[in-house]
């Protein structure tokens, strides 16, 4: 039975928690005994068999649908129903059908996506042979072969590869949005298997590792081979979703498949998201139905009719429940779905959110959350690929006290650099990167005219790095950099004439201004987080020894020679300018070494590198010894290129009182840099707090100290109040105001303590007091936990935006999830509610589409409840005159068509086309967004006002027509004071009054609005004259009893006078109230609309402003994002021992008689070894 339910897509019980995973290579029978998941993924919700029952079950969970089905059952009982069953069943079926079609369409797309992925092909080792299999047929324990540019099939243990040292290069765009390559390395014992199929088929290794989890950056396990146990970490694992790059082939052992892979584990659970208005509507449905039940009269009846009084009262009660159901009719939900669908199409069709470069339009992937876009209070954003393009560009530099990179006019004033600004011509350099752009021609002139300082600057950039060059088939070069920072600097040196051409473990070849020069690489003093610098020691062909060093300016300045003090002062001014523009800076220095000193230092270094005790400390001391008395060359400034319009977008959203939190996996310095670049963090802030505690107590103290500094009188206990509806009460942390602006930066390890139960409210209080919050080094799980914390304890709507698989859990956790689509992969987009190509489109999504959708929906609901409560209250007043017999005051056909035809189109026209101000004024005044955050336009208080307004209108609409027609005769003396004439007059007055009300509510009149409004009135009169005609009565006598009423009543002047009087009395209080309120307490909306009327022309579209130059003393500690120890791979003896491809020589060597490379090997500081585990 369980397998049957599983095949139908229904889970039949909890799966036993897996504590550890044991996998044997090439042993399917053994691995199948553990019942591990296969490699098939399933993101769809239904299949052919389960669609109808599951979808109906989901729809019946909505209170409204269940309520109307119960009402339908009552209408099928003739004894209590005074209305025909079709008045409910037709609109109910329409709602269920529309929702089912929409859900089915969405699920069909999910099935197509799943099928496309599951049917991809990969080579699997089966019975000693490589066979092409579909991904869905791959099992845990299989050995598979991947080729260059191929997606990784499952989570694999890397066994061997075509590259030296068993390295592979992978791109993780689908996982984290980063396009720079990352390096993975197999164990030596498995690397020896190579691509020998027989050896691989005979491999019987056993992996014992952690159970499936969503930690992308961690892996713990052991591999047992021939009795030897070796440790496994994340560097030896290839994750599903990665792409193999620059690697001819590799073999891997499947450890996790399908839903157990880290990619799918990060997808989280699909959540049914509903707006706050949906929840409120459920409450109002209950209130409306309760009000109908409370309206039950106590009806004394005679038992002569066969019923006792109690039973008669019981039947009358349910009759009134049916009659008064029009308080919340099913057409409300039909209209809501149509409005949401229409506003979703506006997003899809918006050309201003279309990205031409990638041919990517904006897309509303859900139709149920549009109005929630107008209520966002907190935005949680990823950094890489979301705020930034993950592209580093060499922007500026300072060389020997002169700054390069700015463009000035003839008077020396700085000119803004645009796309039209002329670029430097690098055609003289045959090896220049055509994608590189620079605008300051004076730097090229300095290099080509022989400036020693400028040439030394770029020589340093060409030598001091760990970049690997790749020869392309067309003779060009491609740099494989572990971090895009290094790639940008080496590319800059390449374009300015110092081309890093090739490297071996003992040498670096550079083409310097068309001359090939080979430097002997003697040592690499690698980067780590404490040193914040890296150095290389090289010997030039002339035999001169030089140390080149680059790193954080504060670190380099401490090691400069005293003679550099004047140059250091000028360079510091330039660094302050670069940092003020959000650029990532480095200081560059060099030192000429004495041959004898270097030999003695090398011996001491060897002793330190082989020491058994305190090796790291001794090596650091040796490095410190040689890295002193450096000569300053200058500084570089690299731009972590933001997406277009990011600072302006963040500024606009901040004016709308939307708080933005950046949640990134990057290190603290990088995150802070981006914070300054996009104007989240500013020097003008009173203080930026850094929370980096390593214990619960330290984190608690840092958070408490920050809170006390922002608000000294704040209490230790958080200000809480209970909030919720339908019995779901939660503790909400109230907002606390502070003077000035503050920022908060918190590390991932500190955040883990802050998210603990006893500290999370303190973290939330402190963070919410700050203007900007940046969480760095956070895991995907922590991103989701931060979002959940704010959702739970702040009465606010949240939005999460990201572009990688590491953002999926955050996107699903937030009220609204937005995916950035483009070159970084589609994992986030597939899990999002809305998607577009650029972060800057977020302001249009919220300030224009979101605000309009919210206002339209609120106007729709207010008007809808007004017209239906007014309609229903007239029934109630009529009950006092009909003995509460459950007789309807209106014609039955009018009751059926009132919401479906007569009043449907005018309110749809308002809810689809109305605008309080156009999009340009919405950008001009972002403060217009704030009422939505406070939920001012539709709330319980607004609902009560609607009810009171409806009560007043219903009194006018019942008693004035009743009084006007009582004992009244026609012009010819015939009596017209009958029930049918009164019903016609009452329903006509009602329709005219509610249409006048919608006219008052409409701000933006279009031809469609006019057509809907006047057309609905015309249809009403046309239908009335038709249905009340002699012909309809003769054909359907029982269905159309109002014969001749329309023509006999509507030709009387007193009837039209009554209609006019009731309409004026209904709208007059509304006009008076709005006039006085606007004069005495005008809202921001009233003020802006008044300004719109005063202005003759709308404001122009706001261009992206050129940010003025500012000065900042804050700079990143180190610009690079690569990990520690990468220099060891560069200097390894077998690194890059790949077959050399033959190519025509581009340049002739200046010295062909002998090799300038010395026989001595470079120092290897941290070798890579695998130590057996006891």
TrEMBL record:
GO biological process: Golgi organization; phospholipid translocation
UniProt-listed CDD domains: P-type_ATPase_APLT_Dnf-like
EC number: 7.6.2.1
Gene Ontology cellular-component annotations: plasma membrane; trans-Golgi network
Compartment(s) of residence: Endomembrane system; Membrane
Matching InterPro entries: ATPase_P-typ_cyto_dom_N (IPR023299), ATPase_P-typ_P_site (IPR018303), ATPase_P-typ_TM_dom_sf (IPR023298), ATPase_P-typ_transduc_dom_A_sf (IPR008250), HAD-like_sf (IPR036412), HAD_sf (IPR023214), P-type_ATPase_IV (IPR006539), P-type_ATPase_N (IPR032631)
Binding-site positions, ATP: 382-384, 486, 527, 550, 584, 664-666, 777, 783, 806-807
Domain of life the protein comes from: Eukaryota
Domain called P-type ATPase C-terminal: residue spans: 829-1083
Record-stated family: Belongs to the cation transport ATPase (P-type) (TC 3.A.3) family. Type IV subfamily.
NCBIfam families listed in its UniProt record: ATPase-Plipid, ATPase_P-type
Protein name (Swiss-Prot/TrEMBL): Phospholipid-transporting ATPase
Organism: Alosa alosa
């Amino acid at each position: 039975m369980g397998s049957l339910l599983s095949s139908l897509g229904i889970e039949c019980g909890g799966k036993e928690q897996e504590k550890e995973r044991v996998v044997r290579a090439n042993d399917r029978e053994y691995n199948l005994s553990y019942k591990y998941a296969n490699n098939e993924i399933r993101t769809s919700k239904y299949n052919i068999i389960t669609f109808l029952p599951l979808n109906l079950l989901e729809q019946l969970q909505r209170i409204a649908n269940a309520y109307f089905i119960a009402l339908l059952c009552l209408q099928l009982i003739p004894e209590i129903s005074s209305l025909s069953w079709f008045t409910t069943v037709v609109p109910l079926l329409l709602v269920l059908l529309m929702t089912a079609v929409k859900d089915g369409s969405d699920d069909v797309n999910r099935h197509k996506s799943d099928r496309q992925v599951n049917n991809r092909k990969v080579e699997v080792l089966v019975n000693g042979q490589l066979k092409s299999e579909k991904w869905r047929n791959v099992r845990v324990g299989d050995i598979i072969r991947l080729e260059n540019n191929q997606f990784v099939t499952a989570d694999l243990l890397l066994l061997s590869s075509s590259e030296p040292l068993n390295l592979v290069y992978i791109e993780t765009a689908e996982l984290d949005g980063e396009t720079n390559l990352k390096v993975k390395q197999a164990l030596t014992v498995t690397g020896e298997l190579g691509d020998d199929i027989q050896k691989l088929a005979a491999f019987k290794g056993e992996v014992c590792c952690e159970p499936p989890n969503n930690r992308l950056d961690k892996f713990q396990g052991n591999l047992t081979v021939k009795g030897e146990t070796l440790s496994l970490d994340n560097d030896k694992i290839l994750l599903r979703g990665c792409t193999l790059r620059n690697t001819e082939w590799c073999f891997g052992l499947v450890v996790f498949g399908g839903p157990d892979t880290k990619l799918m584990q990060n997808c989280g659970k699909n959540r049914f998201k509903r707006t706050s208005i949906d929840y409120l509507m459920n409450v109002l449905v209950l209130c409306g139905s309760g009000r109908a039940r409370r309206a039950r009269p106590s009806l004394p009846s005679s038992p002569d009719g066969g019923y006792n009084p109690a039973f008669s009262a019981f039947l009358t009660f349910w009759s009134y429940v049916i009659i008064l159901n029009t308080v919340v009719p099913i057409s409300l939900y039909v209209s809501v779905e149509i409005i949401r669908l229409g506003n979703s199409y506006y997003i899809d069709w918006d050309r201003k959110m279309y990205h031409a470069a990638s041919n990517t339009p904006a897309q509303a992937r859900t139709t149920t959350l549009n109005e929630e876009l107008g209520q966002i209070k907190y935005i949680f954003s990823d950094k890489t690929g979301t705020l930034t393009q993950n592209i580093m560009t060499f922007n500026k530099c300072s060389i020997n006290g002169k700054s390069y990179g700015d463009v000035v006019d003839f008077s020396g004033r700085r000119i803004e650099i645009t796309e039209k600004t002329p670029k430097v011509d690098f055609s003289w350099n045959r090896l220049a990167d055509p994608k590189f752009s620079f605008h300051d021609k004076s730097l090229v002139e300095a290099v080509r005219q022989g400036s020693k300082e400028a040439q030394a600057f770029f020589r340093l950039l060409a030598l001091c790095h760990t970049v690997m060059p790749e020869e392309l088939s067309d003779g060009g070069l491609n740099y494989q950099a572990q971090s895009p920072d290094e790639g940008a600097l080496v590319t800059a040196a390449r374009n300015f004439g110092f081309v890093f051409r090739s490297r071996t473990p003992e040498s670096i070849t550079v083409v310097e201004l068309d001359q090939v020069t080979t430097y002997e690489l003697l040592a690499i003093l690698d980067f780590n987080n404490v040193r914040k610098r890296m150095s290389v020691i090289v010997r030039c062909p002339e035999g001169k020894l030089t140390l080149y060093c680059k790193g954080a300016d504060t670190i380099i300045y401490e090691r400069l020679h005293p003679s550099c003090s004047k140059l250091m002062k000028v360079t510091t001014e330039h660094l302050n300018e670069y940092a003020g523009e959000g650029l990532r800076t480095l200081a560059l220095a060099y030192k000429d070494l004495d041959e004898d000193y270097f030999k003695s230092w090398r011996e001491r270094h060897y002793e330190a590198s082989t020491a058994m005790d305190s090796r790291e400390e001794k090596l650091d001391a040796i490095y410190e010894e040689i890295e002193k008395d450096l000569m300053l060359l200058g500084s570089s400034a690299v731009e972590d290129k933001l997406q277009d319009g990011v600072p302006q977008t963040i500024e606009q959203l901040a004016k709308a009182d939307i708080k933005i939190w950046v949640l990134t996996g990057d290190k603290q310095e990088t995150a802070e840099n981006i914070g300054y670049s996009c104007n989240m963090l500013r020097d003008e802030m009173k203080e930026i707090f850094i929370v980096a505690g390593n214990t619960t107590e330290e984190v608690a103290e840092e958070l408490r100290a920050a809170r006390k500094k922002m608000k000294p009188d704040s209490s230790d206990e958080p200000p809480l109040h209970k909030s919720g509806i339908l019995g779901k009460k939660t503790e909400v942390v109230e907002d606390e105001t502070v003077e000035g602006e503050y920022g908060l930066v918190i590390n991932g390890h500190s955040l883990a303590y802050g998210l603990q139960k006893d500290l999370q409210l303190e973290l939330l209080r402190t963070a919410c007091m700050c203007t900007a919050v940046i969480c760095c080094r956070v895991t995907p799980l922590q991103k989701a936990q931060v979002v959940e914390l704010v959702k739970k304890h702040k009465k606010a709507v949240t939005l999460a935006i990201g572009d990688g698989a590491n953002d999926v859990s955050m996107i699903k956790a937030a009220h609204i999830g937005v995916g950035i689509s483009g070159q970084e992969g589609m994992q986030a987009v597939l899990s999002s509610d809305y998607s577009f190509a650029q972060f800057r489109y977020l302001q249009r999504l919220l300030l224009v589409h979101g605000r309009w959708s919210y206002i339209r929906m609120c106007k729709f609901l207010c008007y809808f409840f007004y017209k239906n409560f007014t309609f229903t209250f007239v029934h109630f007043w009529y009950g006092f005159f009909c003995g509460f017999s459950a007789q309807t005051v209106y014609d039955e056909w009018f009751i059926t068509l009132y919401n479906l035809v007569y009043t449907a189109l005018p309110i749809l026209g308002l809810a689809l086309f109305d605008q309080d101000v156009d999009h340009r004024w919405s950008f001009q005044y972002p403060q217009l967004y704030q009422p939505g955050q406070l939920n001012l336009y539709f709330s319980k208080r607004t609902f009560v006002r609607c009810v009171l307004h409806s009560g007043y209108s219903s009194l006018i609409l019942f008693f004035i027509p009743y009084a006007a027609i009582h004992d009244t005769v026609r012009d010819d003396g015939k009596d017209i004071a009958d029930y049918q004439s009164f019903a016609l007059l009452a329903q006509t007055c009602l329709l005219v009054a509610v249409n006048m009300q919608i006219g008052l509510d409409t701000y933006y009149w279009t031809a469609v609005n006019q057509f809907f409004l006047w057309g609905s009135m015309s249809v009403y009169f046309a239908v009335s004259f038709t249905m009340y005609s002699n012909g309809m009565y003769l054909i359907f006598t029982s269905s159309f009893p109002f014969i001749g009423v329309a023509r006999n009543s509507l030709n009387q002047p007193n009837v039209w006078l009554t209609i006019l009087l009731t309409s004026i009395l209904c709208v007059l209080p509304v006009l008076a109230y709005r006039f006085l309120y606007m004069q005495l307490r005008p809202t921001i909306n009233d003020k802006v609309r008044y300004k719109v009327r005063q202005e003759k022309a709308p404001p122009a579209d706001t261009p992206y402003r050129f940010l003025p130059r500012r000065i900042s003393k804050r700079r990143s500690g180190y610009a690079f994002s690569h990990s520690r120890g990468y220099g060891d791979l560069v200097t390894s003896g077998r690194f890059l021992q790949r077959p050399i491809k033959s190519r025509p020589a581009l340049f002739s060597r200046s010295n062909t008689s002998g090799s300038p490379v010395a026989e001595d090997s470079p120092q290897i500081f941290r070798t890579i070894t695998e130590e057996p585990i006891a």
